[in-house]
Design goal:
Layout: E1 3-13, H1 20-32, E2 39-46, H2 52-57, E3 64-69, H3 75-84, E4 88-93, H4 105-115, E5 119-123, E6 130-131, H5 135-152, E7 164-167, H6 168-174, H7 185-195, E8 200-204, E9 206-207, H8 218-238
Parallel strand pairs: 1-2, 1-4, 2-3, 5-8, 6-9
Antiparallel strand pairs: 4-7, 5-7
Amino acid sequence: MVSKHKLSLIVPCYNQGDYIYRNLQEIIRTMKNFNNLDYEIIVVDDGSTDNTFEEAKEAENDKLRVIGYTENKGKGFAIKYGFKNSTGGFITFADADLDIHPKQLMTLINYMDEHSADIVVGSKRHKESKVEYPLKRRILSYFYHLFIKSLFKLNVKDTQSGFKLLRRDCAESVLPKVLVKKFAFDLELLVVANKYGFKIVEAPIELKQLFNGSGVRLKAIKNMFQDTLAVAYRLYIMRYYDEDHVVPKVEKKK
């Protein structure tokens, strides 16, 4: 049964058995510190081939559930699957590696109230954000933002942030339409929300040691570019977002 005052935190994970239990314990401790907040934590194992599912199960309690399926589908699919199993009036996502710590959720909640927003994006490019951001990524992010703004008329500076808060009615309208499972999931979600007239605002975040010297892979840039053009094709040519879309069923992990 859906509770309009409850917050559903969805945690997608894939092959993170080495630290998933520890990080889930940190999430649990963090959520307990939010006074008077009714919440649930839904951990979605995205077809892991290691012991992620078993390790996550060790952290289950009355506030945390672990669900999953047998085939790796991608982060976007995992979030949609988690949403289908959620009961909160507000939906948020957190990466299992805790790059963005969930203690910052209250910032998103406050921004949603202050701006009467339907979606709040924890933005690395907000003027008040404190983020370690290598110059190369800063430049790529800037030009990608310009590309997205011109292509979709989407005035969001950080479309790739995985840290978001959505009202349930917004999620119910938008998520079934999202097809991208990996590289441009966050972008497509925002493009569809913008098309439907939902209000999107950006909030500041703090992020330390985000990139760990990993650099920017050409293959990732290529995949992002292809997925972005695919979203534009569905929006302007196929008119896909005007049509009904049925979320496929998947096999549950036993």
